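Researcher: Structure for this, please.
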Amino acid sequence: MKKIARLIIKYPVKTLLFTLLIILISIVGVYRVGLNTGNDTLITDETEIYLDNEAYQMEFGKDPIIILVEHDDPFNQQSIELLYQMHEKIKTMDGIFSLNSPVTLLEQMTIKLFQESQLGLINISAGLAQTGNQLSLLSSNVSSSNQTNNVDLQALMTLIQSLVVAQNQLGLELIDIYSMIDQLILTTDQMILDLSLLAEDLEGDLSRVDELEITNQTLLDLEDLKSNLTIIDQTSSSSNIPAQTTQALESILLNMNTLSVMLGEKTAALTTLSAQLSMMGASLTQISTNLSMISSNFNAFEPGFPESEETLQMLLYDENGIRAPFQSFIIDENKIRMVIVLEYDITDQEVDAISEALFEVVEDMEMSETVLISGKPILDRSIKSSMMDSMQLMMLSSVVMMILILLFVYKVRLKLFPIFMILIVVIATIGIMGWFNIGLTMVSMAVFPVLIGLGIDYFIQFQTRYEEERRG
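Model: Predicted structure, C-alpha cell format:
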C-alpha cells in the first residue's frame, strides 16, 4: 500500500489519466456482457454429455418454440388463420431450422393437388384425343361394314359395351373440367380488374413507364387467356354428349338382336350409328384440343394457402372426420400445436425477433386468451428479462439505501464519495466480465450484493481514516 501511495504522490496526473482509461475500458466492457441461461451455466462445456448435446443440436436444431391454440373445434378457420399468419411472419427470419404445423401440411397438399391437377388435365386431354380417334375409326368400320353382309354382332356389342362404360366415366370428368374452367374464368376476371386499376394508377407517372408497359402486356396475356377459356366454356354443352351417347349406345345394344333379324333395316341403322360415332369423335377431339390448351397455360396459377373456408374444410376433413395426417397436431382433443425448431447457432437477438413476431400476431388477432407460446427459448427470454429487471431493482435499491444511510449517519465531508467509488468498482467488475466473455448468470449475480456490501464498508473505513490523518 505504501508503494502504491508513493507512486500516486509521485505521478498524480498520470495516475489519474490511467484510472480514467481503466474506467473507460470497463464501461466498454459493460456493453459486451451478456445474460447466460443456457446449458453451459449448469454443466461445463468440456463434458461428453454437453458435447453430445451440442452435436445433436447442430444436426437436428436447437430447443423448439411450441405454440398451442385452444378451441372446442381445434381446426376452426380462426385457429388455422392464426397459424398461417405466424408461419408467414417468421418463415423468412434468420435462425429458423424448421416449421411443423398444420399450415405446412396444407401447403404441401395444395402443391400436390396443383401438380396432380396439371398432370390430370394432360392425361384427360390425351385420353379424350385417343377416344375420339377410336370412335372415328369405329365410325369408318361401321360404315364399311354397311357394305357387307358379314357383321360380327357379338364383337360389336362387346365394343359398344366398353364405350358405354367409357362414356359414363367421361361424363363425370367433363362436369369437373367445366366447373374448373368456370372458376378459372372468375379468377382471370379478378386479375384483369386488379391490373386495370394498377394501370390507371401508373398512367402519367413517367418514372414507372416500364412497370406500366409490363402491366399492359400482362393484361393482354390475361385477355387472351380469358378468351380461350370462354371459348372452351361455350362448349359446355358438350358435357351432355357422353350421357346422350351412352343412351344411344345402350339403345343400340338393346336393339342389336333385332337388327340381326331385320336385315332390311340394317343399312339405315348402321348409317345412323356411323354418323353418331363420327360426331362423338369430332366433339371429343375438340374437347381434347381445348384441354391441352388449358394445360399449357396452367402454370399461370400458383398453389398456396386456401382462402375459401369450404376448400380448407375439404382439405382438413374426410367422411371419417379429421384426416389422419392432421391428427398428430391435436393435443388433448381441443388444442393444436405448431413447433418451431431453431438453428443451433441462433443469437439472442434473433430469438427476440421471432418471439416478438409471434406475440404480435396473437395480439393483432386478439387471441391472447386461447394461445400459449412456450418452450425453452421463450422461458430463457423471460428469465433474462426477469434477471435484468431484478438486477436493476437491486442496484437501484442498494444505491438509494446507501445514500440515505450515508447522508444521515456518516459524519465526514463528501458523504457520498463511497457511493461513487463503489459504482466504479461495480462497473469495473462487469466490464472485466464483458471483456473475458463471462456472462451474467443467476449465480454470478449474487456476487454484486456481496461486492457492494463489502466495498462500501471498506471505502467508509478508508475515508474515515483519511479524514483522521488529514485533521491530525
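Researcher: Any notable elements?
Model: Residues 2-43+382-471 form one domain. The first strand starts at residue 64 and ends at 70.
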